[in-house]
Each structure stands twice: as C-alpha cells, then as structure tokens.
Amino acid sequence: MEFADSLQRFLVRMTGDPQASILELKRHTEGFSLETFSFTASWRDGGEAAVSHHLVLRRQPAAGLLEPYDLGPQVTAMRAVEGVLAVPRVRWFEEDPSVLGAPFYVMDFVEGDVPLPVPGPGGEPSIADPAERDALARDLTANLARLHRFDWKDSPVAAFEAPRGVRDAARRQLELWRGYYERSRPEPSPMLVRAFRELERRLVRLPEDGPVCVVHGDFRTGNFLRQGPNVRAVLDWEMVHLGDPLEDVAWATSRLWRGQTRLAGVLVTCERFRHLYEEAGGYPVDRDRLAYYDLLSGVKMAAIMLTGLRAFADRRTEDVRMAIFRHQLAGMNIIIAESLGIVPGLDG
Amino acid sequence: MIETDRILDGLARTLEEAVLPALDSGFARGQLFAVLEVLGSLQGQVQWGGMLLENEADALATLIGQAAASTGGELGERLRRYAESGDATLADRLHEGRALVCALIEEGHADDGALAAGIDAYLANDTIFKAMALRPGRLAEISQG
After folding, report:
1. Is the dihedral of CA A296, A298, A302, A308 positive or negative?
2. Could you report the per-residue pLDDT of A280-325, keeping only the tens digit for each?
3. Given this model, what pLDDT does residue B20 score?
4. A-B interface: how many C-beta pairs under 8 angstroms?
5. Does A119 touch chain B if contact means CB atoms closer than 8 Å?
6. What is the rounded CA–CA span in Å between residue A142 and residue A125?
7. Residues of A with CB below 8 A from B78's CB?
8. Could you give the 3-state DSSP secondary structure of residue A206?
C-alpha cells in the first residue's frame, strides 16, 4: 500500500492533477534485473477530460545481476532512439531514491508477447511456423541494423564514453566483464581464466579501426515484444553502451539463447540471422570480431551469474532466482569451452 | 563461493515469506510446512557436488603431478607441494588445485607446449561431466510464473 501511495503522489506531481489516480498495480516476475510493475494511470491533462494510460515502471533493485546500477544511460539511449527503432516511450525518469525507495523510470506499456529463448515441450521452437520465425527475425535484425546505423554523435548518447575503434571497444568490454568476475570473489575458475587469456590473445589480432555505434548489450529473444512477425518494442537496455556492432550480433546468435535448438534465439539459423542483419543495412559481419564476441558472450553471462550469486550469498538480495545460477554455471562453462574449441561444437 | 546452507536458507525464506501467504488451501499449507521442516533439518548436513567433485580432485592431482615435473620457479614449488599434500580436505584440494591451474594458464602454459593439451583435457572433461548432471532449465516458468 505504501508503494502505491508513493506512486500516486509521484503521478500527481508529474501530471499536475491532484486527482490523478492509479489502478491495477501489479508486480511482474519477468526480467532478472530491474523490478517491473505495471499499472493504469488516469489524470486530467490541462483541465481537459481525463485520460488513461497503461504504463510500466522499472525500478532499480537493491542488489542483483548488474550492480552497481545506473538507470541514466538506458533512459538516455531509449529516448535518443525513439522513432529510430521499436522502443517504448519513456515518460518520466526519477533519480531520487526517496520517492519510491530506488531510482526508477516509467514508460508506456506496449502490447505484445515476449517469445522466450527456450524450446517447446517436445524440443521444437516455441513459434512453430518457420515462415513466421523468419519474418520475425527479419524485423528483429532490421531493428538492430537501424540501431547500429543511428547517428549517435549528434544525440545525447554522445555523452557516453566512446571507444577509439573496434579494438579499443573489445578491450573495454573485456575489462568490464573481468571486473564483474573479480568483484564477485568467486572460487578460482580455470575455465574463465582460460577464456580471459584467450580473449587477450585474440584482442591483439583485431583491427584498430572500425565502426563504433550504440550497442544494446542484451539484444536477443526474450528481450523484445512482438505481435505476429512484427517487433513492437525492444526492451531491457541496462547494458547499452558505445561499442562494436558485432557485439550485439554475437550475443543475439550465441548458444546462450538457442535453447536446445540450432537456431539463434530459437528463430532462424545463425547464418540466416547474420545474413538478414547485413541485408537490412547492418555492418558487414567480420568473422574474427564475431568469434571474439562469441567467446566474450559466455564470459559475460558467467560474470553476470557470479555477480547475482555474490549478492545472494552476501544477503544483499533474497531473490532466490539468483540461486539457480550456481548449477547453471556448468552450462556456461560448456558454452565457453565450445567457443574456445576445447569441446566439440554441439551445433555441428 | 556460496555455501549450500545459504541456498537452503534462501529456499526456506522464499517459501515462508513469498509462497505461504499466497496459499489458501489448508492441505497445501500443511505440505509446505513439512517441506520447511525438512529443509531446516538439512542445514549443516549437505555437501554439494559429491562424486563429481571427487572426480575433479583426481583429475587435478593428475594434471598438477604432470605440471610439477616440468615447471620451475615459485609456481613449480607450489605445484610440487600440492602433489605431496595427499591428506588435505577435498575442499582444500579443489580450491588450491583450481588456483594452481589458473596460475598455469596465466603463465601461458595453456597457450601451447606440453601442458596445454593436458589443461584443455582437464577443462573439457570436468565441464562435460558437470554439464551432464544438469537438468533442463525452467526459464519460461520462472519468468512467467
């Protein structure tokens, strides 16, 4: 009740209508990172008739997978690319933690369903029709290409730290995720140390120059809303940054999101996904950079899991979903070992 | 990195604080209280991993024995001490053994050379054995409730 009352007071302040009200406030379980709530808000706009909007609130958690949190960059990016690709409109961003206990933002609710990167009960893709999956992948990759071609230098995103080129971008990501790994104070992990060593070796072989663009950072099945073959909104911008566009391509096609299928995001083959991305105007897919980010994808996911486990172990969160990462790390090690070439690729 | 007792405690808290208040059925509540009692009785009694960890410790001993014979310097000394410390606990053998493999990798022994194949074989076997123990994940149910 206290949360609902605080939210109602916030709505009054934002709309200027002392009678503004909220209905149907619900907490959602989707998303392992930010806390998500939906509600319907009604207010009078400038003394006119009351309007109702279905809204979504995303609040920074006390602790979790991507700590320390800063909602600023994702709000900046989502606002900057509104109209460029399918993204929810952010109405309000509140940084003051005293308002609702932690910083949060409110965005428009977007109709649609979220396909998950898991197969159906019989091992088949959850979207059964191959033509529908292909059409959806086409729209998804078109959105990704538009994001990558967005001219960020003339936008508020220009305030983000910009790498000097693709090698510097790769180095920054390596150091970022090594930092997450080290801060999680894990048991010694020979697999991750082996992967970090290999990434350093591959880094020096990457070209210095190359495109630097807005990278979503978590672009994949599970993080977008769709209606039929159309992407309605790309969600979960917590890891947005400036970097190499192929980082998103590698993440979206990583075995992390293939379920037990051979399909990128349980949609289309990886080769088809890359073809559609290039065809839609995305950057040419260079195999060395793709391989670098394919390996980094497994490392990044393991570092995220270890961060969540550390928060749970230290009792900074009671979200028991963090505990599943203890046994799931074995799956991450298989994916990393595949990328390293020390176990056979299970996808042939 | 995370004690089994912490996981058991987290499970019990979630059941008691998030699940129990939402249960209306008296039978379901009774079942849940029984689960909570069993979980409580496991505190301090459960060791994670069992045979998988014993197998890994054996593989580490073999690899480190091989490395001790061919590695010099301070790391070589640590490897030899490990190879001779047969009476350490399983937890200590795993922790120090993994730390030594990390040190070997950081010194470049997995890049190429005689030990590289042995290190990768240890990593591959250990990874495959542990992954075989995995059950299908329940991401859809966890996400959608």
Report:
1. positive
2. 999 999 999 999 999 999 999 999 999 999 999 999 888 888 888 8
3. 94
4. 113
5. no
6. 22
7. none
8. coil
Are A115 and A248 spatial neighbours (Cβ–Cβ below 8 Å)? Answer: no
Q: Please, what's the largest Cα pairwise distance for chain A?
A: 67
| DSSP track, A215-237 | E-SS-STTSEEEETTEEEEE---
Both tokens of residue A325? 């990462």
B residues 40-99 near A, CB within 8 Å?
A: 48, 94-95, 98-99
B127/A312 touch (CB, cutoff 8 Å), yes or no: no
Question: Which candidate from B14, B108, B111 shows the least CB-CB separation from A320?
Answer: B14
Is the ipTM of this structure higher than 0.85? yes
Residues of A in contact with B7 (CB under 8 A): 323, 326
Quick check: A199 and A292 in contact, CB under 8 A? yes
Beta carbons of B106 and A191 less than 8 Å apart: no
Q: How much is the pLDDT for A41?
A: 95
Residue carrying the six token digits 């039929």: A228
- Per the confidence metrics, is the pTM higher than 0.90? yes
User: Helix or strand or coil: residue A255?
Assistant: helix
Confidence at residue A49, expressed as pLDDT on a 0 to 100 scale: 78
pLDDT in tens, B78-110: 999 998 887 888 889 999 999 999 999 999 999
* Contact predicate A264/A252, CB 8 Å: yes
Which of B1, B10, B102 lies at the smallest CB-CB distance from A185?
B1
- A334, B128: Cβ pair inside 8 Å? yes
A94 DSSP 8-state letter: E
Amino acid at A320: V
Q: Which residue has the tokens 């580490």?
A: B60
Q: Is the confidence at residue A346, as pLDDT, over 90?
A: no
Alpha helices in A258-323 (DSSP H): 270-279, 287-313
What tokens were used for B35?
């689960």
Would the CA dihedral through A190, A195, A198, A199 be positive or negative? negative
Q: Which amino acid is residue A339, in one-letter code?
A: S
Over the stretch A34-87, which tens digit does the pLDDT of each residue have?
999 999 999 997 767 788 999 999 999 888 888 888 999 999 999 999 999 999
